[in-house]
Specification:
The chain is of the alpha/beta class. It has 2 domains: 6-82 and 188-272, Periplasmic binding protein-like II (D-Maltodextrin-Binding Protein, domain 2); 89-183, Periplasmic binding protein-like II (D-Maltodextrin-Binding Protein, domain 2, 3-Layer(aba) Sandwich), CATH 3.40.190.10. Helices cover 42% and strands 20% of the residues. It has 13 helices and 13 strands. It has helices spanning 16-26, 44-50, 63-69, 98-101, 114-123, 137-143, 160-163, 175-183, 200-219, 221-228, 237-247, 250-253, 256-272, and strands at 6-12, 35-41, 58-62, 73-75, 81-83, 89-92, 106-108, 129-131, 145-146, 149-150, 153-156, 170-174, 187-195. The strands form 3 sheets. Strands 1, 2, 3, 4, 5 and 13 form a 6-stranded mixed beta sheet that branches. A hairpin with a 2-residue loop joins strand 9 (145-146) and strand 10. Helix 1 (16-26) packs across helix 9, helix 1 (16-26) packs across helix 10 (221-228) and helix 10 (221-228) crosses helix 11. The longest helix has 20 residues, at 200-219. The chain is globular and about 60 Å long. It starts with 5 loop residues before the first strand and ends in a 14-residue tail after the last helix. The model has no long low-confidence stretch (mean pLDDT 95).
């Protein structure tokens, strides 16, 4: 009888860049040998929280959230989303100054997202916020409320960074641009994390398949974009290509020394600011 394949459950966000990089794994475009991959599409904050129970072998995760599960997961050296001079944005119907933003109620996509960590670092203190699913933040800002709670501004991630202008919203701050000015580094937003208890061989195998999937997508760009467009809201082919190019690129194939330095710095600044309770030294799959 043939040996059963080892199951690797994969969690990633239902957005175009994740769909693009996982296209080959999700659609049988590469040979995964003795492994069988099952995919779950879940919003990033839900995945962040699920990582506490370590039920997924491979999961997309915010770099901020990794700080809380670093004892159970290692970060892949590939599969990262880096904002190189761009990133999550705060938008409003009418722009205000950064100082004024501290007094506004901001819709955020989750308290464990890297976007929220970066905004806290930028504002320098706590601020009033309401947690809103990422794909409902722009409607909440336009309406001025979410489920009866006042909303003055929104912290947008994913494709909202390209589409907010379509809804007559104004940019207050681009956190990726701010981070690049402050550090000279890309802003590390998300990565993929592998459970430590899988063992070294499986960890390395899974990372290898993930990298093959990313490389396949980059080498078969239009095929992968057509697949990824199923997961994009309000994105045509051109915008899908633009958005994917922002977050699936050379940084995604390999973080490299500067990418790892960026992750370390974000976590270090989070600790220095009192947001993280302990200093975190990230572990990367070699």
């Amino acid at each position: 009888m043939p040996l059963s394949k080892q199951l690797i459950r994969v969690g990633h966000s239902p957005d175009p860049d994740d769909a693009f990089m996982f296209h080959a794994l999700a659609n049988g475009k590469i040979d995964t040998g003795n492994y069988r991959f099952e995919h779950e599409l879940v919003d990033i904050e839900t995945l962040n929280r699920r990582a506490l129970s370590a039920d997924l072998e491979l999961t997309a995760i915010s770099i901020h959230a990794y700080a809380y599960v670093h004892d159970r997961y290692e970060l892949c050296s590939c599969g990262a989303s880096m904002g190189d001079g761009y990133g999550p944005m705060v938008v409003m119907p009418k722009a205000c100054s950064i100082d004024d933003l501290r007094d506004r109620i901001i819709a955020i996509p989750g308290e464990w997202t890297s976007a929220y960590l970066a905004l806290r670092l930028r504002l320098g203190n706590d601020f009033a916020f309401v947690v809103v699913p990422f794909d409902q933040i722009i409607p909440a800002v336009r309406a001025g409320e979410y489920q009866g709670q006042k909303v003055d501004a929104g912290l947008i991630i994913h494709e909202g960074q390209l589409t907010y202008g379509d809804y007559q919203l104004q940019l207050v701050v681009d956190l990726g641009a701010w981070w690049k000015t402050e550090t000279g580094l890309p802003l590390p937003l998300g990565g993929n994390a592998i459970r430590k208890d899988l063992g070294r061989q499986t960890i390395q195998d899974v990372q290898r398949f993930l990298k093959q999937s990313i490389r396949y997508a980059l080498n078969h760009r239009m095929e992968a974009i057509e697949y990824a467009r199923r997961f994009g809201r309000d994105l045509d082919v051109v915008r899908s290509d633009t958005f994917i190019g922002m977050y699936v690129n050379d940084w995604t194939l390999d973080l490299g020394p500067r990418g790892r330095q960026a992750v370390e710095k974000l976590l270090h600044w989070g600790y220095e600011a009192g947001i993280l309770a302990e200093p975190i030294t990230p572990e990367f799959v070699v």
